[in-house]
Amino acid sequence: MTPASARPVTPAATSPAGSAAPSAAAPPAAVPGRGRRLRLIVVLGALSAFGPLSIDMYLPALPALAGDLGVRDADVQLTLTACLLGLALGQLVAGPLSDRRGRRGPLLVGLAGYVAASVLCAVAPNAEILTAARLLQGLAGAAGIVISRAIVRDLYDGVEAARFFSLLMMVNGLAPILAPVVGGQLLRFADWRAVFAVLAAVGAVLLAAAVLALPESLPAERRSGGGLARTVRSFGGLLADRRFTGYALSAGSAFAAMFAYISGSSFVLQQVYGLDAQQFGLVFAGNALGLVLLGQVNARLLRTRAPQVMLRAGLAVSAAGGAGLLVAVVGGLGLWAVCGSLFLVVSAVGLVMPNSTALALSGRENAGTASALLGLLQFALGGLAAPLVGLGGSGSALPMAVVIAGFAGAAVLVHALWLPRPDTVAAAPASL
């Protein structure tokens, strides 16, 4: 892969709307060789998968978990929201901290905390303690998500970063493919607590991998000084940057559409359309496979097309899937029409996330802070989607369809309003 420093990104011109690109940041660190790059893809891809790992593996167990703990479906979905809230807030701590202290230390602490929180989830005696433990699990797991993005920005920028994020999907995309299948199979031999025992083991393996294969990517001379006040000012500057918020909010809305699917699909597909836990796991895995495939298509097409073009295409596919889902549910078109529409919604994330992330972080000096705010906006919108799906109950697919279609449509609208003119950040072709 050609170093980003050899293919500079042209900043966007300042506009009256305030959509200027950030000032040029320090050049990326020395780009690793092919062997180390492969290790980075595997380890960073796995670290960035803490979201789907923490959420998707126990989706097949949600109906059984509700019965075991004697709570409503909405109470069980609250454990999803708690984890998502933790994943969002934890990034606000780990991201800026990694800008000041380096990437490695905060990452290792977060991974150790994730293992401990997963054990607590496995032994939780009631829904209240499980919800609190899920919050802690999300707070700790957030370090892997936010710091892995920051490490990519340390090494690459512009189109190179977009392509690297797409390559990470070959690894982190396996999480939503395998996690529900593994969860469904575990339920054949054990109860929902075994899922969290497996998550604790996964966290321990990733901790060992980070210790052995992930060196520091942010040298001391590139670390930021200051404390909380500077972090708050940095967040304020990012929120005032129309270009950053345009990419973050449009991607966050598309992410919320997918999380509405994550939150509601286990109930809809099992209780409304009659699938069992194993069948649901296979459907979920097929949708995740579409995400991975489109991520790799994105990496290929970025050789000749700009990330902005691929992002707009992804948002359009997501909106088409959301509209199709609403029509399928209202029109009673059946399981296949519903699954086909959901496939479009989920697969589109393979185009949306790599490009929106690379464009939002392009040229940012404090990549950890920017990555944290980017993740916060995405997970906050996703956390909003989960209870909206649950409010409609589990006996109908309509609430999930309405929320998915609404957020997918909002993603297109936000992108058009915040970024009304083509962004002028250049994206030169790259090769592996």
Q: Would you give an account of this structure?
A:
The protein has 432 residues and is mainly α. It has a single domain (34-214, 238-418), classed as MFS general substrate transporter like domains (Growth Hormone, Chain: A, Up-down Bundle). 74% of the residues lie in helices and 0% in strands. The chain has 17 helices and no strands. It has helices at 34-47, 50-56, 62-69, 73-101, 104-122, 127-155, 158-172, 174-186, 193-213, 228-240, 242-272, 277-301, 307-330, 335-347, 349-361, 367-391, 398-418. Helix 11 (242-272) runs parallel beside helix 16 (367-391), helix 12 packs parallel to helix 14 and helix 16 (367-391) runs antiparallel to helix 17. It is globular. The termini are close together.
Topology:
Elements: H1 34-47, H2 50-56, H3 62-69, H4 73-101, H5 104-122, H6 127-155, H7 158-172, H8 174-186, H9 193-213, H10 228-240, H11 242-272, H12 277-301, H13 307-330, H14 335-347, H15 349-361, H16 367-391, H17 398-418
Helix pairs in contact: 1-7, 1-9, 2-8, 3-4, 4-5, 4-6, 4-16, 5-6, 5-9, 6-16, 7-12, 7-15, 8-12, 11-13, 11-14, 11-15, 11-16, 11-17, 12-14, 12-15, 13-14, 13-15, 13-17, 16-17
Helices and strands, in order, run as: HHHHHHHHHHHHHHHHH
Taking all Cα atoms into account, the compactness measure Rg is 20 Å
Helix content: over 70%
Annotated CATH homologous superfamily:
MFS general substrate transporter like domains
Question: What's the short story on this structure?
Answer:
This protein has helices at residues 34-47, 50-56, 62-69, 73-101, 104-122, 127-155, 158-172, 174-186, 193-213, 228-240, 242-272, 277-301, 307-330, 335-347, 349-361, 367-391, 398-418. The chain is mostly helical and 432 residues long.
